[in-house]
Amino acid sequence: MNWLQTGWRHVWLPYAQMQTAPLPLPVVRTQGSEIHLADGRVLIDGIASWWTACHGYNHPHVAQAVAAQLQTMPHVMFGGLAHEPAYQLATRLAALLPEPLNRVFFTDSGSVAVEVAIKIAVQSRLNKGERGRTKILAFTGGYHGDTLGTMAICDPEEGMHSMFSGLLPEHPVIGLPRDAASIVAFDDFLEAHAKTLAAIIVEPLVQGAGGMVLHPPGVLRHLRKAADHYGLTLIFDEIFTGFGRTGTMFAFEQAGVVPDIITLSKALTGGTLPLAVTIASDELFAAFLSDSANTALMHGPTYMANAMGCAAANASLDLFQTEPRLQQAAAISAQLAAELEPCRVLPGVKDVRVLGAIGVVELAAIANPAALRLKLVEQGVWIRPFRNIVYLTPALTITPGELSCLTGAIYKVLGAR
Ligand SMILES: Cc1ncc(COP(=O)(O)O)c(C=O)c1O
User: Fold this and answer.
1) Does residue 145 have its Cβ closer than 6 Å to ligand 1?
2) Which of 359, 137, 329, 333 is nearest to 250 (CA)?
3) Which residues pair with 234 in a beta bridge?
4) Which residues of 70-101 are buried (b: 16+ CB within 10 A; e: fewer)?
5) What is the DSSP letter of 110?
6) pLDDT at residue 158, rounded to an integer
7) Of the residues 49, 213, 240, which should be mutated to test ligand 1's pocket, given the most ligand atoms within 8 Å of the CB?
8) How far apart are the first and last CA of the chain?
9) Measured from the CB, is residue 114 less than 6 Å from ligand 1?
10) Cβ-based neighbour number of residue 337 at 10 Å
11) C-beta of 250 in contact with ligand 1 (< 6 A)
12) Ligand 1 neighbour 204 (Cβ under 6 A)
């Protein structure tokens, strides 16, 4: 494994203390829900590569679409040039989403899609001559990315607000209106501060990176009502929850309300290529139209609307039409609920919860998540505990047998603690 030892001196890993980080596991191949390691071991993947590989790895339909696109045109700049995969994808996404979500802006990562959502929310007001409404209301436990703009709307701890104070813009971060007391606090906050706000941003139904914390659909209805009352832009960040993860194609469908902006990424390309979109309402888009170049949306990542990424996303949407992904999510949900439930009585377990194809075992604490991860690897599964949770977000195509390997490994390893 020469490349690993040599390259290890040069790579910088995500979210890792490099002084103590163990060598990562070298992977040589993926297939379906399998990760094949260089030493011949095969791990069942419980988290679909940070929630991206919704059809499993190497789905032939997506692979073929990407290969064909590579032959004809891997990439062409999006400023002044057009290509069919992107225009077709924009049309399909707009058709998939309810009115008035019709205008698609392409980027290359989830964080940047959220940055664009913030810019749209703020600039749409500036374009109309409304000054002083530059704040975004965000929620404790929320996560929207690692760039500076998005860190500022993450949970203060996750976004390291105090460490980076002075560098990050300051936005209010308060509790979600989920019970009587927090609803009063939320309503009071808006009454006092709505005039400074441009938007409210939330991860609908589940705060993913914040610990897979669920909230009921009524929370989203309350946010929609408040946004309408105070004239605020409502942003649903569905970068994690989009494309069947919560059991419906998009999480917001379960609340019966529609945001003014939605951000999507991760499973958008079925886990093959980096691509993200910010989809805005007709009304927001209209606020950028004028005779002056000054009101244009000034954003344009070099690789935006990458043709291979768009081809992958179109192929992924084909699969949602032709294969029973939402039924698979429902079956996964039932199996997760049944097979994780026994964990509830294990020592140190605080909660077991399931939403769609998300299964969570919450512990009082995990002293060493990396050590727990290695114990799970010894059981033949790839699961990445973080904070105080062990969770599963498998490919929607995972087989019942593979899923049982994952839940069984969690039960065994947590039972032996
Ligand atoms: C809800 C949500 N928003 C934004 C992001 C950031 O996406 P990316 O890592 O592609 O920048 C994530 C990533 O986990 C996410 O879960």
Assistant:
1) yes
2) 329
3) 200
4) eeeeeeeebeeeebebbeebbebbbeebeebb
5) H
6) 86
7) 240
8) 32
9) yes
10) 14
11) no
12) no
Nearest ligand 1 atom to the CA of 147 is 11
Q: Which atom of ligand 1 is nearest to the CA of 145?
A: 6
The CA R_g of the chain, rounded to the nearest whole Å, is 22
- CA nearest ligand 1 atom 7, residue: 110
- Provide the CATH number for the domain formed by 7-59+324-415 in this structure: 3.90.1150.10
List 45, 108, 237, 260, catalytic entry: 237
Out of 239, 264, 273, 384, give the residue to mutate to test ligand 1, the one with the largest number of ligand atoms within 8 Å of its CB: 239
DSSP-H helix ranges across 102-216? 110-127, 148-151, 180-193
Judge if pTM exceeds 0.85: yes
The tokens 């991206």 sit on which residue? 52
Per-residue pLDDT of 10-68, as tens digits, reads 999 999 999 999 999 999 999 999 999 999 999 999 999 999 999 999 999 999 999 99
Q: Using CA atoms, how far apart are residues 45 and 58, in angstroms rounded to an integer?
A: 13
- Collapsing DSSP to helix, strand or coil, 129 comes out as coil
Low-confidence ranges of the chain (pLDDT < 50): none
How many residues are present in the chain? 417
Backbone CA torsion sign across 120, 126, 130, 136: positive
Separation of alpha carbons 149 and 289, rounded Å: 25
The residue type of 217 is P
- Tell me which amino acid residue 144 is: H
| Three-state DSSP class for residue 127 | helix
Query: Does ligand 1 lie within 6 Å of residue 411's CB atom?
Result: no
Lookup result for tokens 């802006």: 105
Residue 325: which of 353, 355, 356, 354 has the closest Cα?
356
**pLDDT of the residue at 417:** 85
Are the C-beta atoms of 220 and 202 separated by less than 8 Å?
Answer: yes
Name the residue among 97, 146, 92 with its Cα closest to residue 280.
Answer: 97
Q: What is the Cα–Cα distance from 217 to 236, expressed in whole angstroms?
A: 13
The full set of domain ranges for the chain reads 7-59+324-415, 62-322
For the domain spanning 62-322, the CATH number is 3.40.640.10
